[in-house]
Amino acid sequence: MLFFSKNRAKHVLDEGAAELDDASLQKALSNRQRIINKVMNSDSLAPYLSQVGTLFNLVQDYVKGEYREVPWWSLGSITTALLYILMPMDAVPDFVPIAGFLDDAVVLKLCLDMVAKDLDSYRLQKQIKTESRADASADDALE
Predict the structure, then answer these.
(1) How confident is the model at residue 135 (pLDDT cuts 50, 70, 90)?
(2) Which of 19, 45, 50, 61 could disulfide-pair with 39, CB 3.0 to 4.6 Å?
(3) Keyword Transmembrane: yes or no (predicted)?
(4) Domain count, the chain
(5) Distance of CA 104 to CAs 37, 39, 97, Å?
(6) Above 80 in pLDDT, residue 60?
(7) Are the C-beta atoms of 76 and 84 separated by less than 8 Å?
C-alpha cells in the first residue's frame, strides 16, 4: 500500500485512542529515545522533532500526575502516533525507500492537528508554571 490517506490515519488514531491504557503510556515513554532517533533520521519526520518532544513531555507529565487537563482521547491519539512511529511494519513498511516514513508523518501530522488546542493549553500551563517559579526565585533573592 503506497498510498496512505488522511482517513486511514484518522482511523489508526481513533482505534489507538479507544484502546489506550497505562501500559501503552509506559511503552511510549520507555521507547522515547528510539522514537526520537527515528524522527531525527527520517526526512519525513525530522521537521516534527520539536513537536514530538512536546508530545513526550505531555505524556510524561500526565503519567507523573503533574498535568491532567488533557482529554483521554487526545492522550490516546498522542500515544498512538508516537508508538506508530516505532512500528517498522505499519501501513507502508519503513524499509521502503522514500515512502517508508510517509505514513508515519501523515499519522503524526494529523495527530498534531487534532490535538493542537490541547497542546496549546499544555504549553501555556508550562509557561505559567515556569514564570511562577522564576518570580518565586526572584522574590527569594530579594529577601
Answers:
(1) low
(2) 45
(3) yes
(4) 1
(5) 14, 9, 14
(6) yes
(7) no
Whether 136 shows a pLDDT value over 90: the answer reads: no
Task: Tell me if 60 is assigned to some domain.
Answer: yes
In angstroms, the CA 143 to CA 139 distance is 7
- Is 74 part of a structural domain of the chain? yes
pTM of the model as a whole: 0.84
Closest by CA position to 40, among listed 50, 28, 30, 31: 50
CA dihedral 1, 80, 111, 114 (to 10 degrees): 130
Distance CA 143, CA 1 (A): 66
Q: Is the pLDDT reported for residue 93 higher than 60?
A: no
